[in-house]
Every structure is written in structure tokens, then in C-alpha cells.
Amino acid sequence: MGAAVEESLDLEKALKAIASPRRLQIMQWLQDVAANFPAQVHGDPVKHGACNLFITDKLEVSQPAASRHMKVLVEAGLVVATARSGWVYYRRNEPAVDALKHQLLAL
Amino acid sequence: MGAAVEESLDLEKALKAIASPRRLQIMQWLQDVAANFPAQVHGDPVKHGACNLFITDKLEVSQPAASRHMKVLVEAGLVVATARSGWVYYRRNEPAVDALKHQLLAL
DNA sequence: TAACGACATAGCAAAGTCGTTATGGAGCTC
DNA sequence: GAGCTCCATAACGACTTTGCTATGTCGTTA
Question: Which residue range is the domain that position B30 belongs to?
């Protein structure tokens, strides 16, 4: 794929991504990483986001289940993953979220 | 305050309802019934909406499939059904759609 | 009454979703 | 290197979604 262009938001994919209680909650948690997750040693909450392990713990599902939920959100463009020394941090892709909201307002 | 009725909108149900290309398109068609559907004899396009038969034709699926899609939208509260002398007309429930948009803006 | 048209429901099969456990790669520490 | 943690993928089962055809109900019409 090429450079990230938020205007090419796949509405159906984004809607299916958030039409799940787990993933909707993840998106809400990621609104404030510092407030909703424990302190991290290796990544900045604001700049990089929350790591998969913390999300797994909060979701109370298995680690692979959380991992796949994050993959769905990433592939929908709503979340950005940052790999960093063994950990993977996830943060919201606000331009994409805004694009989604904008498209939904025309619904 | 306008007609911002705080309905008991089930966010997950509403999201799942529109997270389908068929149903999303139906919602868009229902934005302008008079423009998107043939003239009706027995029901007013604006007041009552479009009948199941026209939606079936536009969707290019079987009549039961269209009927079930409409049921999902009705049960999500996004569409209102009006039975009238053998026909059933469907129209958007704008307050519910507005409530959905409002909730999504907080995402 | 009989026939027809519009719609809903039942029943079935293919495909997708979402949980699990098992396994493997990448990076850190000793 | 050995061992550990974090994360992703594979493989499987249970459940849900979505298409179809067949059938039933209801209201109108001849």
C-alpha cells in the first residue's frame, strides 16, 4: 500500500470494525491512554499508544483474540500500530476517525 | 431545544444494522424516496416511505432477503414501518438517525 | 368464494465472526 | 547460547449472517 490517505476511508470496513462491542470499547479506551492503561516503561502513552498486553488484560480475552481485534481496527485505518523493541503500541488514527464521522453525518 | 429526543438507541444494534452494504444503501435511498423509487399509488413517499417491493427490486435480491434487511433496520430503530392496505412502507426514523450520529461524534 | 398480489416466516446451506489453544518469530537479559 | 516475554498466525469449533426456495397470512378484486 502507499502513503496513508485518510480520504480513501473504506466506510463499510470502518463501520464493521466499530460495530463490535469489544472494538468500540478499545476505541474509547484509546481516547485517553494515560487514564485507561497502566504506566508504560518503553512507550509514550500519547505518542505511541497502548501495548497489546494492556489491551488484552482490559478486554479480558485471550492475547490472540485481542491481537486480531487490533488487526481489524488497523486494517480499517482507525488505529495505527507502532512496533518498538518487542512491544507493539496502538493509537487512534484521529484523521481517519474524523473522516468516518464526517461520512456518517451524511448518512 | 429542538426535537433532540434522547431515545433508547442501542448503539451496537444500530451500528451492526448499518455495517452492511445493502442496509447502508437502503438508508441512503430512503433519504429521498421520491427521487430513488418509482411513483407509488397507495402511499405518500414522504409521509410513509417506500414499499418493500421497490426496495427488493433496487437491491436485486429476493423478496424475503429484502424483507429481513428491513426488519433489521426496524429493530435497530433506524426505520419505521407503516402497514397500509396490504403494503408495508418504510421510512427513515430521523430522530434515531440523529441520535446515532450524536453518539458517534463522541467516539 | 376463488384468485391474486404483497409481505413475513420457516428451513436450509455457504460464508463470515469470534472465542479458544498451540505454535513460532523477534528482541531482551543473563 | 539459553531462557524469557511480547506479539502474530494457524487451526479448530460454536455461533451468526445472508443468500436462496417454499409456504403461509392478509387484504383486495373479480
Answer: 11-105
